[in-house]
Amino acid sequence: MAQQDYYELLGVAREASADEIKRAFRRRARETHPDVNDGVGAEETFKSINEAYEVLSDPEKRARYDRFGTADPRAGGYGQDMGGDFFGMDDLFSVFFGGVRGGAAARPNPDGRDLRTQVAVTLEDAGAGVEKDVVVTRLTTCATCAGSGAAEGGSVRTCPTCHGTGQQRTQRRTILGVMESTTPCQTCGATGSIIDKPCPACGGQGRTNETETIRVTIPAGVPDGYTMRVPGRGEAGVRGAHSGDLLVTVRVLPHEFLHREGHDLHVMAGINIAQAGLGGTIHVPGLAGDVEVPFGGGVHTGDVVRVKGKGMPRMDGGHGDFIVHLDVLAPKKLTKRQRELLEELGETMGTGGKGDERTPLSKLRDWLGA
User: Fold this and answer.
1) Superfamily for the 256-330 domain
2) pLDDT tens figures, 311-352
3) CA angle, residues 363, 366, 367, in degrees to nearest 5
4) Which of 264, 308, 253, 249 is nearest to 37 (CA)?
5) What mean pLDDT is predicted for residues 252-281?
6) Which pLDDT score, from 0 to 100, does residue 34 have?
7) Four-residue CA torsion sign, 118, 119, 123, 129
8) Measuring CA to CA, which residue among 56, 231, 205 is closest to residue 142?
C-alpha cells in the first residue's frame, strides 16, 4: 500500500516551518487520539500522524524524506542494484577483506529485526510515570516446531552447497583482475541448513506472525519523542537465532493550559488590580495539585514568577521549575463601593498632568504607603 504524504497527513505545506508543523501535529493529535475519537480507523490515523511528525520534526529525516520520499536511511545510498557488472559496497568489502563488511563471517540464520511502535501519554502521565499496553504484530518463535523449522519426524542438515555458511563465493573477471565476492546461498536460502520436512505452521522458518499486547513502563519525566528499548520483543530470529528489540517512541500529548519547555512548566494566571498593586499569593493548578505562587506588589501583565522545583521531574533526579506568567485583569463590572474606592484612588494618584512626572505605579505605591 502506498505511503500517504506526511505533509498531507498533518495538513501543512511542504515549506512549512518547524513551529507550523508542531502546531499542526498538536491539533491533529487532539482530533484523532483514540481516547476522544472512536471513529473507524482513528487509531491507525493517530499512529500515522505520529509517524509523520517524527519524520518532519527532525531536520535530517525531513531532508531525506523531501529528497527520496522516505526517511529510510538506506534510500538513495550505495549498494543499490545498478544492473550489469557493477557491484555494491558488500562486493567491494568482499574483494578486499574476503567476506562481508569488515571481513566478518555471515550468520547463517539471521537475527530478528528491531521493531518500532509509538505510544501516546498525557502530560500528567509523563510527569508521574505510567504503564501502557502496546499491541504489536511480530514474527515470534513457532510454537509447533519450537523454532527449529522442522516438522515432527523431520531433520535439519547442513547445506552441501555453502557448507553451513549461508553464502556462496563467486568470481568475476574485471579490469582489476579476478575479483571474488560472496552472495546468499540459493540452495538453502542463506540459512546454512536444509530441512527435509519443513514445519507446516511456519514453512521451515521457525517463526510465525503473532499479535501480542506488550506492557511497557514509561518513566516519570519522559520527554516527547523519547524512545525506549524493550529487549527481545522485536522479531524472532530465523530458526532459533536471537530476537530483535522493540523500540517504543513516547509521544506526550499537548496539555489544556500547561506548556512544557524542557523540564519547566509554563502557565498563565490572571490577577486583579488590587493584587497587582499590593502583591500576594495565588494558587495555580499544576500537574499534581495546586501550586502556591507568591509575588510582590507592583507587578504588570507579562511579569513572570518562578517557583523552584515544581515543574516536571527529571529522569535522572530532581525537578524543573513552575513558571507563572501574570496577567493583570481589569474588572468589567464594579459595585458602587468598588467604583467609589477606585475614584478615590484616582483622585489621590492624580491625573498625571503637567509637572507631575511620576508613573502610575509610583503613585499607587505612594498612596499605599509602600
Assistant:
1) Urease metallochaperone UreE, N-terminal domain (2.60.260.20)
2) 999 998 999 999 999 999 988 888 999 888 888 887 887 654
3) 85
4) 253
5) 93
6) 67
7) negative
8) 205
